[in-house]
Design goal:
Distance between the termini: 30 Å
Structural class: alpha+beta
Number of strands: 6
Strand order of the largest sheet: 2-3-1-4
Oligomer: single chain
Length: 152
């Protein structure tokens, strides 16, 4: 069975409909939203959309969505995600960007730090690494972005 991903193609304001039409022309079901188009697919879909979408800025994998009203909920929600399916042992994974809109969690550097801490703790647990020993991040880089809109 092929692994399915929830995907987002980001777009500049006003170009969402164009990106949506490009995705539709590739034979993919989609949902157009402000600044992005949501769709689903496998690894082949990711490659195809990266090659053929002209109006999209990026194609991103949605690792998960959950309520995050407090930093504890953010930490627990990030920790609960299956990071081991996305990040191999040794991967570099900077939390490169945090975006908080209409959220009580408006301090973006703190959101980034909490997210990074939760991912590190999850990977240490999965790869059986002691808590005091830092993970070696010497492999390929996987940039992580966190987006909080209201409480989600």
């Amino acid at each position: 069975m092929k692994q399915r991903f929830n995907l987002i193609a980001t777009a500049a304001a006003g170009l969402e409909a164009v990106v949506g039409r490009e995705i539709k022309d590739l034979g993919i079901e989609r949902q157009v939203e402000n600044g992005r188009v949501r769709f689903q697919g496998d690894l082949r879909t990711i490659a195809k959309t990266n090659l053929w979408l002209r109006a999209a800025d990026r194609v991103k994998i949605v690792v998960g969505e959950f309520p995050a009203r407090t930093f504890e909920e953010l930490f627990q929600g990030v920790f609960a995600l299956d990071w081991e399916n996305y990040l191999p042992l040794g991967a570099k994974f900077p939390v490169a960007k945090a975006k908080c809109v209409r959220s009580k969690l408006h301090n973006e550097p703190s959101v980034q730090a909490s997210t990074k801490k939760a991912i590190v703790k999850k990977l240490q647990s999965y790869f059986h690494r002691p808590e005091g020993v830092p993970l070696q991040e010497t492999g390929p880089e996987f940039k992580i972005e966190v987006s909080i809109h209201k409480r989600q």
